[in-house]
Amino acid sequence: MVDYPLNDTVFTPELPPPTFRWINLDTWSDTWLLSFEFKDKLGRMNFQTKSTEMTFTAKNWESIKERSSGMTATAHIFGVNHSTPTIIRGHTKIVFETSLDKVGAPLLYREVKPPFQEAARDLSRIRWRFDSISSLSPRIVLSNPPVCGSCHSFSRDNKCLVMDMDYSGNKGSFVTLQVKEQTVITADEVNTWDDFEKKSNKHTNGFLARVSPDGRYVVSMVRDLFVIAYSSFGDFFFPVRGILAVYDRKNETYYPLPGADDPDYVQCNPCWSPDGKTIVFIRAKAAEDKYDTENYFMTSEESLDYLDTIDNFCYDLYRVPFNDGAGGIAEPLKGASNNGMSNFFPRYSPDGNWIVYCQAKSFIMVRPDSKLHIIPAGGGESRRMMCNNQGMNSWHSWSPNSRWLVFSSKRHSPFTQLFLTHIDHEGRSSPPVSLSHMTALDWAANVPEFVNTDPNAIKNIITCF
C-alpha cells in the first residue's frame, strides 16, 4: 500500500521533488518498479529501487508535474524479487494530478525546537522563516529573538504586520510593523492591550490579535482569564473569560467592540472578512467570577479546581458587523455553532466565499483530535476536509487566490510539520501534501501565514530592543 502521497492528491506546480513511500506487504518483494502512466500517450516513466521509498531528481519531477498538469496520472508500484524479476509479487497504485493553480505566495512561519517549555526559557530554540514553498532551504529571517513572538497577521496590501510579542515580560504586548526587506522592530512599535484599561491593576494576555484588511484596526481579546493544564499530549490552555477590544492605529485609542463585549461570555479568536465589514469570533459561556485573579492565568490550583467542575469547554463561531468600530448584534454562524463540539480558529478565504475552522471535542489549543472543517462564509453545511491527517490539524492560512490552504499537523514526525491542500471552487479539498522540506526534522513548525507579496519582500527581521 502507498503511504505517501495518498490517492487523489493534488500537487502544486511549485512543489520540489517529494518522496514517494509505500509499505511492503509482500515478504517476497525486495525490488520495486515505479511506473507513471499519463494521459498524453507519450509512454510511461519508469524507475527502479531497492528501497520502499523514492525521491525524484528535479528534472524527472518536473517532467512528472508537466505531464500531469491539469489532468490525472497514475503511479503504479510493482514489487518483484530480484531472483525472478519477471514475476510480479505485489501491485498498488494511486491517482494524482498537478494543479493548474499556483500557490503564488511565500510563507512566514515559526519554528520551535521542542520541548516547548524549554523553548520558552531559551529563545535560541525559536526562529522564523519566510520564503516560497519551492525553496529547498527556506530563508531564516529571525533567529534567537530577544522576546517570544507568535500569532501574526498582515494587512491586505502587506505593508503592515501585526504580531503578538512578549515585550519586557508583558504578555499583552503586540507590535505593528512596516514591512520592508529589512523589517526593524524597535520599542516604538510596541503597544500593549493593558492600555485598554490603564486604571486597572489587572494585566491582559491580548490573545490572537489580528489586523484589519485596511491596516487601521487591530482586534484582540482583553479582560481575559485562562485555564492552563497539562496532558500526555502536551500543555494546553484555553480562555474562559474575555471580550473583544479594538485598537485604532490612526487615533491611537482602545475600546470594546459592541456585540462581542458581553462579560457573561468569553469572546476570543477574531477573524476579519476580506472586506473588513464582518468579524467572526469564538464564544462560550464565561467561567464563574470566583476566580478573581489579577493575572490572566488561573493558578495551577484554580485551574485544577475549575477542570474538576466541567467535562469540556466548547466554543461556537459567531459573527458581528464591524461598522467602523461601532459593532452590532452578534449571531451564531449556522453549521459551526450549537453542535456539541468546540469550534475555533476561523479563517475566511480571500475571495470571501468560505471559512475554514477547527473542530474538536473541547477546548481550543493543542487538541489531539482537532480537525479542519469548511463552511460557506454565510453559514450552512459544515464539511470535514479530506486533507486532515490523524491527530492534530490546526494553524491554517489561505493562499491569496483562495485555492490552497497551509496547515500544521503531525503525519510523518512527532513534531508539527506544514502541509498543503488544494481547495476547488466548490470547497472540496484534496489529501495533504507534505511540505517537510521547509522544516528541519527536529524542529516543529507552526503559525504559518501566506503573504501576498514577493519572496524577497522580507529578508531580515531585526530587533532593536
* CATH fold node name of the largest domain: Neuraminidase
* Helical residue percent band: under 10%
Count of beta strands:
34
Helix-and-strand structural type: mainly beta
Mean pLDDT: 92
Q: Supply the number of structural domains.
A: 2
Strand content: 35-45%
Rg for CA atoms? 24 Å
User: What is the top-level CATH class of the largest domain?
Assistant: Mainly Beta
Model regions low in confidence, pLDDT < 50 over at least 5 residues: none
Largest sheet: 5 strands, mixed
**Architecture per CATH nomenclature, i.e. the level-2 architecture of the largest domain:** 6 Propeller
Compute the number of helices.
3
Distance between the termini: 54 Å
Shape: elongated
CATH homolog superfamily of the largest domain: TolB, C-terminal domain
Q: How is the largest sheet built, in terms of strand order?
A: 2-8-7-4-5
